Amino acid sequence: MPQLNPNPWFFIMLLSWMALTLLIQPKLLSFTPTNFPSNKTLMTAKTLPWIWPWT
């Protein structure tokens, strides 16, 4: 069963993870976000209980 042989696939997986961590990730993390998070307070809606006519 050739799918149990990890020789070519393990090397491909290691190369892809190394490329992701060493090349792609620093480039993505260097971008500055355009919309910074704001410090707004959350407004909670005041809800009234529903009165069921049959109870």
From TrEMBL:
Annotated GO MF terms: proton transmembrane transporter activity
Source organism superkingdom: Eukaryota
Transmembrane segments: 6-24
Entry's localization field: Mitochondrion membrane
Transmembrane among keywords: yes
GO annotation, biological process: proton motive force-driven ATP synthesis
The UniProt record lists the keyword Membrane: yes
Protein name: ATP synthase complex subunit 8
